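Subject line: Sequence and fold of a protein, written as structure tokens
Enclosed: The protein record, placed directly beneath this head.
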Amino acid sequence: MHLEIVTPDTQIFSGTASLVQLPGIDGSFEILNNHAPLISALKKGKVKILDENKELRFFEINGGIIEVLKNKIIVLAE
């Protein structure tokens, strides 16, 4: 899946991920390949990414919105 994490100031991450775990407002959730379309609000917390090299990466966000559509994930983070 292609993942982009964008803030008002900069692009934090752009690349391929096989797993993305996010802090949803009702609890954390994961996105895997071929996930159903989704739009959700995010709260403050860590975004966990398993990248194409099988390395875990973590990014701290203060909330935001996620959109998942056709194996493309866009996170608009604060």
